[in-house]
Write a structure and sequence with these properties.
766 residues; binds zinc ion; Alpha-Beta Plaits; globular; ten-stranded mixed beta sheet; DHBP synthase; 5 domains; 30 strands; alpha/beta
Length: 766
Amino acid sequence: MLVKRRLRLEIQGTVQGVGFRPFVYQLATALNLFGWVNNSTAGVTIEVEGGRSPLNLFLEKLQAELPPNAKIDALKYQYLELIGYNNFEIHASQTGEKIAIVLPDLATCSECIAEIFDPQNRRYQYPFTNCTHCGPRYSIIETLPYDRSLTSMADFSMCADCQREYEDPGDRRFHAQPNACPICGPKLEFLSHCQGQENTNQSPLEAAIQYIRDGKIVALKGLGGFQLLVDARNNKAVQQLRGRKQRPDKPFAVMYPDLPSIKNDCFLSQLEEAFLTSQASPTVLLQKKKEFNLAENVAPHNPNLGVMLPYTPLHHLLLKSLNFPVIATSGNRSDEPICIDETEALERLKNIADGFLIHNRRILRPVDDSVVRVMNNTPIILRRSRGYAPEPLTLKRTLSKNVLAMGAHLKNTVAIAQKNRLFLSQHIGDLSNQLTLQAMTKTLQKLSQIYDFQPDIIACDLHPDYLSTQYAKNLAQKLNISLISVQHHHAHIYACMAEHQLESPLLGVAWDGTGYGEDGTIWGGEFFWVTKQSCERIAHFKPFPLPGGDRASREPRRSALGLLSQLYDLQVLKKLNLPTIQAFSATELELLLSMLKKDINTPFTSSVGRLFDGVASLLDLRQRESFEGQAAMALEFSIDGLQIPDFYQFQYTKNDSILEIDSRGIFQGIIQDLQNDLPKNFIAAKFHNTLVEIIFDIYLHTLKLGFNSRKNIVLAGGCFQNKYLLEQTIQKLESSGANIYYPQKFPPNDGAIALGQVMVVTGQAI
Ligand SMILES: [Zn+2]
Ligand SMILES: [Zn+2]
């Protein structure tokens, strides 16, 4: 006689919103097993009854034949007494501890694309088509469990046809929570500034297409927020967008209709293509070809272009019809967060956009486009947002306390960590104004709400004046919990260590523009010896003065002046025949020199970012910046493929046991090369090579001291977004057998600081 048993499974991982329950249903019914499956806040629970061999087969296939986006992190099962189920059902969701995973938004799948371009299909040209394999997730989810009633699709009730699909276990839309069609789902609307003059026979989509063809700017309510679209071939239209957005030079990302059209303009490797066509569908930085067909002002003075493919049905319909590339940039005014709501967009974007293509599906949180660049044959996420957030990082050990981290001042993200999981939020922006600060607090609240998260400890930056530090102080006081300040560059190293699950001891190199140091100066050219007990600063660049403080970060000429003041007497300095000196008016120069002389508003910095600025100014590549990193990028780009072995001489001075790298010799060398009329690309490459030599030399130093027997080195911070610097450093270090680690899944820049803050705090306090 066949002995039946009841098998109960508790599954954790990415199992909600990916067609997991339909998959279980189909598997169970195919094997003639009875029971049920449901979504719990912990994941998915299954009970099945049947004979030994079909149950074994069920267990095996459950793990081997997962739906495309599903991932099992943990599976527990037990055999129990028979109940005697007589069918297999999908039960309503349960509540409980919230540890299931919210999926990122997923780019439209090929089956849905085929449907919207099939005139026979009932979803022909329907811009909100989706299924269990694709569509909105994080941007529409209010809280867990993932059920339509807890998403912004709760505003729409399914028509009979959609309901049938939703209930049919054999259908691709079985339990697809955002399921919709032209009858019952969200609808488009087009609004323009000149109401009444529009061609009323046009559909909203046609109206938007007409606007873009005519060189006008259209604000599109997309997946995770508004985007501004404009014809990328039209120089005048692009210039208008730049003027209205107050964005004179910063490159725009471009959405292309398809891969062949991208290949007309840019080089595309297999790896880059794989990322472009992935379900995350990020913007990928590609190298432009010589025969570049777009307007020059799309990405001026830049050999690269940020490129993406359509990732929603709405984008597919637009781009198919336009059949040319469009700029697709965040729908915001400069320095503000991206708009997600039409009322807000109509107000904030009224002086930028000519028309608005909107819809009535609410976006519950802003999720910008992500950015990826392939360096050293590795994809590196430079901005982690749509398609990636809020996928958790699994920690090596289970935390006994919940940690909330506020992140950095620029490129802010926040993080929450509980048990063995850390959730890093999507990109929020620079916390330089109230709107972005509000966006940050909202992101925190909503992320906490999804996971029923209550912090036990708050981590924030060491800088006493940051808005995020003030906010953290108030929150810690209100909740009566402890607040721990974390040094910015420590956080960079620990973030990278967490990503690669690295153990100390190791050498950490943290290079970027700015971060408040433990000694009150501005750091940014740091070498740390990291052990279980401490993160010790063993070397750094010799601090130099920055006349005017913060303003220097937007004016490379000020960094150069500060560096030159270390080399020359101030009276001699102002007569030097250098582009830096000529970039100032006589009055400006007098003022800054007197600030330097009297040490007024002139903080000292060891920042490598500011060294890049200084060199860019001396080479007259950039005297002022209109966006962060512009001068450093100009210096990197000016190398233009040149390969030379030369580097500048550098010395160390010892300050206690800390090595100080004296940059004066380097700058003397640069000035000499300038006086000898050596080409800019030669000087730029020679400067980069010098930085590579310095990292290599200090790495050797740690070997000599005998404490880096594992030969581990971490490279983190915004400077390592520089392809030449990263690749040359890796090449040099690899030649000596070093194990080199650098950020890949989390940004090298300040976008990963919140992650690092959690790791520093958990290392110390838990
Ligand atoms: Zn689909
Ligand atoms: Zn419908």
